[in-house]
Each structure stands twice: as structure tokens, then as C-alpha cells.
Amino acid sequence: MFSFSIFGRKDGFTLLSPKSVAKWLEERPKDDALATVDAASALLRALPSELEKPDLGQLQALVMLDDALVTKAAELTNQYVANVRAVGALEKRLWASVYDLTLGFIAAYDFLMRELPQRMDAKRWQAGLLPLLVRLMRHRGIDAKFRLFRYEQWIPGRWRDLHANYALACRHGLDKTSTEVAGAEGPLHTSIAREYLHTLLLQLMNTGNLAPPQVEWLNSKLAAWSADIELTPHAKSPEGFYVDLSGVEGLRRKRFQPTGGQFLYLDTTPMHGRIVQYQQALKDELSKGPSRQVEAQVSEQLSAISKVVDYFAPEFKPVTRNEPRAQEAIRARLVIGFRPSWNTLTEMDRWLERKAKGPAGQQKYSYTDKQALFIYGHISEQTGKQREQQEAKAREKAPEGPPMPVLGDPCQILDRGPTGCRVLTKGNGLTVSDLGTLAIFQEEGREDWTLGIVRRIKRITADQVDLGLQIIALRPVRIMIQAQRHRLPSGYSVDGEETTIQGQRREGFYLTPIDPDGKSASKTLIVPASEYEANQVINVNTGQTTYSILLRHALERHAEWVWTTMEVVGKTAATPPPATPAA
Description:
The structure is a single chain. Helix content is 41%, strand content 23%. By secondary structure, it is of the alpha+beta class. Among the domains are: 10-203, no CATH class; 325-353 and 394-474, predicted glycosyltransferase like domains (Thrombin, subunit H, Beta Barrel); 477-487 and 497-573, Thrombin, subunit H (Beta Barrel). A six-stranded antiparallel β-barrel has the order 6-7-8-11-10-9. It has a six-stranded antiparallel beta barrel with strand order 12-16-17-20-19-18.
């Protein structure tokens, strides 16, 4: 009787032997890493159902496939990091491809680790356990890294599996045995203990404010920074960290002596000192005035180190905030994104206009009223009485005008200060690029919206996100801007002045100063990135007046928007729209 699958008969399955893996790799397209990785993920998903009696031959085939795909996975990871700021189908596709491959290898190694001991003697199993565990630990580290790319944290089950794998290696005396594995830049020597420690240290970087390029760069430096530290069964100093092999968490600060678990201790003093030295070297390099390209790269690396250096310090130092924050739970509404925030303020402005008119101003002429005006030139007495009754009922139902619209997603403000706050929200639509994006929130019972910038993202659960917002304006004003652009050289001028043309109308924000008097703070705008140019003049129309504004220094730049200082250089009365001719 035959057994069929998506790969044909079981005796033709690719992962049965190293020979079949080699043949499969030869048939893959050389210049399409994405297709090769996706095909390998499909093979790994089918492995548990295809292998009835696994042996060391399947383990060798799996190890061979793993080592062969290291460079392709690294290539796709680099592409993801390079394209992560332009969120779209490519960014999601690259992330999912490498992550699915990692999960496939974890599931395959777990399957063999459960099945192989039942089908061979202890000596043969001992020979295959080291290459299996070291690669399984490496893929668990990749899993942790790719979750950091999305500001996610491990669930307890993943911690339990990581600790169980390391405890198994310790029981067999394999935790510190060095072995060779394939790396993106060539063969390298590692051990199960080094891979385990690397994953623990990587999870300490779950700060919520690291961009994926920064996570990838720090991950590449961890091995060198942590070369001379190791987990020990006894604490070497009163400070430092500990990990419970029977628990469901990673490294924890040793603020007191832990009890009731299987504890290992870590003194990060040498590692922290090395990171501080590296940080100072980057500062010294910046002070030399390097080229613009080198300066941008060094600044990015210095920013990454500054965000994590205190997390590796052996002694706990609480974060000092610029302003005190009140611990409070306030219900609010949240909108994330440049365009969604502008559209929300537009809806609020429309509601305020309707509210200013009052209930009577909301009434519209009916068809009967139009007929009366057209035929008689006035509304009849009966129609007038009906209108008075309708207005009285409207005032009783809504004495203050129409109800305020419910905009944005529900959220909860956990703490609040003059310049920042923590917000707990669902965040289902949050992406990597939302770190550094604009967001507005409205506290329950208030009409005003507050504008901020997302500085930190931490996914608590699958549908809950803890956001850290920097508040930059309490009552932002939406504006429409038009850039004044010079015409192409044509030899044509008016009174010796070069002619200009008006650009497209684009959205923007005028930021009211946070301080109460607003005298000491400089006036700023947020404009689309495509419209910003230093010392460029733009027109801002408020309906009553058109202001000519000179854009000055850029305080902050992003792919979508630029926060810039401004200077008013002129103003004129806005031209009223042409009157509609009478019928």
C-alpha cells in the first residue's frame, strides 16, 4: 500500500538523508533566496508527518539543510532591516519568510529530540545530541530577535522550553562543549552555554524603543561584549542577575536572594564596562567631525548603545524622568499616524462648527419651506410655528448642540506628566514603523486632543500594547500648507523678480507651545517630509488670513513628516471664494 503526501512517497522525502538534501539544494534557484527559504519551510512543516521511524540520518540531513540556509536567511534578514522603515508587503514578506524558517527548524529539532531516544541506544543518542541542541538553541535566539523586531516578548511556554533544553545539556555534560556551526560569514565555534547566554542577554534589550536595524547591530556585538562572562551556580557579587531554570522568565536583577528554584547567577560587570568603553569610543569618533555618511551611522550606533547600556549594568539604576509623572488610570481615545491624526482633528473642527451654531443652526429648510420661499418670498405662519416647535424640542434633547463624535480607539492612560505619558491600548494595527510616528489622544470628558510622538512600544500580549508617548503639543491645530516653488528657468520675470508657482495643498500641524504663556517657546510646525526644505517659504491659509512662513531648523525628521521651527515673514487677507450667481 502506498502513502502519498505533497512530496510524493515517503521514501522520496527530501529530509531522509544528507544525499537527498544535497540534491534538493542543487535544484534550488541560485539567485532567489526567498523561494528557497519558503520551500525549506514547507519541508520542515511536513517532517513530523513524513518520518515514521526517524534515525540519525534524518538528523544529519536536517543539520546539513540548516547549515546550508544560514547565508540565505542572513541575506533576507539584511533585506528586511534595510526595508523595515518602508512598511508594506515586502517588509512583511521578508520578516515572515525567515521567521517561518526558524519556527520550522525549532519544531523539527523538537520532534527528533522526542523521537530519537526511543529508537537508539544511549551512546548513539549522545553523539547526536550536541549538534541537535546547539542548533536548536541558536534558532531559539533567532526567534527572540525576530520578536524584538516587532516589540514582542516571549510567552512563558517559550521560556520553559529554552530552560529545559539548557538543563538537558547540563545533565549530559554538553553545555560547555565547543562545536563548529555555519555562520553568515563562515564557520564559527560556539557552545550550548554561549547560545543560551546570548538569548538571555538579547531579551534584556526588550526596551521597546529600538528600531530593527539597531537590534540587529546590537545582536552582532553581543558575542564580543559577553566573551568573558558566564552563568555560575553561585553569585560572585551582591549585584547582577539570576535566572531560574524551573521558571518561565529570563534574567532578573538580584535585588534580594532568590529562593525556591534552580538558580544560576550572572555578573555583568566586565560586559558593562566594555559597552561603556565602546560608547565613549563612538563619542570620540563623532567629535572628530567625520563625513556625513559616517556621522549618521555612528550616531545610530551611539543611540542604540545609549538605550541599552543601563539595562546591562550590574547595579540597578532607576530611570530618572525629566518631569514627575502621576500614576493614574484615565480612559481616553487614541489615534496613531500622521494622516489619521489630521483627519481626526478635521472631524473635531466640523463638530465644533456645528456646536457653535446651536440646535437652531442645525435645522435645515424642508422641501415645503423651499416651495414657500420660491412662490411667496416668505415662510408661512404655520410653517414658522412648526419650526419654533421643532427648535424647542431640539433644545430640550440637545441643549448644547450635537453630541461629540467618538473618534479613535479606546485606550487607558497609566501615568501622565507634562512631557510624556504611558498608554495601554489594543494596538492590533501597530507596525514597526510606528516607533517615532505621530499620535493624538483625547482624555475622557474633554474636547481637546493632545499630540505626541511614539517613543516606546512593548507588546504585553497579542492584543495589548504599552506605548510611551512624548507630548509635544496640548492643542495641535491642523493647517493646510502650500510651498512656493520657483519656476523652471525661462527668461521670464515680472519687475525683475523671478516668478513662483504654488505647490499642492498638503496637510500639516501648528503646535501650540506646551508652557502656559507660550512666550518663551519657539513656534513650530509639522509638515510632510516631501514639503520640507530649510529656508523655504510656505503659505498657510487660516480662512481669514494667509501667512507666509519661513521654515527654519528641523528639530526631528522622519520618513513621513518633519518637525521644524518657523518664522512668520508676511501675511495678507485671504481672498474670499467667488459668490455663487443667483438663479
